[in-house]
Amino acid sequence: MADVFECDPAKIQPDSTPDTLEAWDSLRLLDLILAIEQRAHIEISPDRLEEMMSVPAILRVIEESKGS
Amino acid sequence: MTADTRASIEAALDAADVIAARALATAYWRANPDASTARYLTGRIERLWPERLVEHRVAILRSFTVEPIVPLLQAEAALAGCRAVPWVGEFNAYGQEILAADGGLYAHAPDTVILAVQTRDVAPRLWSDFAGLSEDSVANEVEVAASGLASLIGQLRARTAANILVHGLEPPVRPSAGLLDSRRPLSQADAIALINRRLRERCADLPDVHLLDIAELHARHGRARFVSDKKWATAKLPLSLEGVGWLAAEWWRHLSLFALPRAKVLALDLDNTLWGGAIGEEGLAGIKLGPEYPGVFFQNLQRAALDAARRGVLLVLCSKNNPEDALQVIDEHPGMLIRREHLAAMRINWEPKPANLVAIAEELNLGLESFVFLDDNPVEREAVRRSLPGVIVPELGPDPSTYADILRDVPALERLTASAEDAERTRYYAEERERRGLQAGAETLEDFLASLDIRVGIEPISAMTLPRAAQLTQKTNQLNTTTRRFTEAQLTEWLAAPGRAGFVLRSQDRFGDNGVVGVALTSAQEGVRDIDGLLLSCRVIGRQIETAFLAFVADFARRNGQHRLQGWFIPTSKNAPARGLYQQAGFEMTSERDPDQLWAFDLTSGDVAAPTWVTLDSGLSTGAV
Question: Which option is the CATH number for A2-65: 1.10.10.10, 3.40.640.10, 1.20.58.220, 1.10.1200.10?
Answer without folding.
Answer: 1.10.1200.10
